[in-house]
Amino acid sequence: MIGFLKGRLAAKHPPSLLLDVNGVGYELEAPMSTFYDLPAAGEALALYTHLVVREDAHVLYGFATESERRVFRGLLKVSGVGPKIALGILSGASVEDFLRTIETEDATLLTRIPGVGRKTAERVIIEMRDSVKKLSNPGLDGGVEFPAPGAPASAQSEAHAALVALGYKPPEVTRLLKAADEPGLSTTELIRRALKAAAKV
Predict the structure, then answer these.
(1) pLDDT of residue 133
(2) All residues at 6 or more sequence positions from 165 whose CB lies less than 8 Å from its CB, including other chains
(3) Of 19, 42, 63, which one is at a domain's C-terminal end?
(4) pLDDT (mean) for 146-174
(5) Which residue segment(s) compose the domain that 99 sits in?
(6) Residue 54 lies in a domain
(7) Residue 149: inside a domain
(8) What is the distance between the alpha carbons of residues 97 and 171, in angstroms, rounded to a whole number?
């Protein structure tokens, strides 16, 4: 399995990115928490990875930190949770917020994420309760520093596409982005503000 990739960021179109590793382009899907820390295209980037093998495709997922990857892997073990929902959870909540949600057994944060209903949220809390201490261990993180993200050319359209890909309905995305928009905001900042607004609804 591919556990780690280091190269140059060739392109980013949330929630997908292309990483050039010695002339080989790896396509990866990543949560918004990872996108917030991406450098500008052409700059050095290293990501922890997880490979999901399906009948019709092999999909590689990338994460800025080992704790993000550990939570993602933990979520995949929960009955009824696939990679798309796991990415959505990591995009809608930081690792710390997610682990706090499990510890306090408060399903409200999870049910605000597209694709996560009350039953799924409760199942995530029940099935991940015992693994919270292991998942919150920061010992495996570190070793990779990321430059500040660069501002993309079409921040609004990229943010819109990313939020739709995460499962939000286009009219809702338009409303969230309209409320979050300010001149000069980057794609990641727009997404961050839109997700925060969605969590408060």
Answers:
(1) 64
(2) 14, 15
(3) 63
(4) 68
(5) 67-140
(6) yes
(7) no
(8) 27
Final residue of a domain: which of 46, 63, 80? 63
Phi then psi dihedrals of residue 27, to 5 deg: -90, 130
137 three-class SS: coil
Q: Is the peptide bond before 15 cis (omega within 30 degrees of 0)?
A: yes
Give the C-alpha separation, 67 to 190, whole Å.
24
Instruction: Evaluate if residue 27 carries a pLDDT over 90.
Output: yes
Confidence check: pLDDT of 154 > 70: no
Question: Under DSSP, is residue 59 helix (H, G, I), strand (E, B) or coil?
Answer: strand
Q: Which long-range contacts (CB under 8 A, 24 or more apart) does 123-131 make?
A: 123/78, 123/79, 123/80, 123/81, 124/75, 124/78, 124/81, 124/89, 125/101, 127/77, 127/78, 127/79, 128/74, 128/75, 128/78, 128/102, 129/102, 129/105, 131/74
Helix (H, G, I), strand (E, B) or coil at 110: helix
Q: Is residue 159 scored above 90 in pLDDT? A: no
Q: Measured at the alpha carbon of residue 120, what is the angle toward residues 118 and 123, in degrees to the nearest 5?
A: 110
Q: Which residues pair with 17 in a beta bridge?
A: 12, 28
Dump pLDDT digits (tens) for 123-141.
999 988 877 766 655 444 4
With 80 as the cut, is the pLDDT of residue 149 above it?
no
Q: Are residues 89 and 116 in the same domain?
A: yes
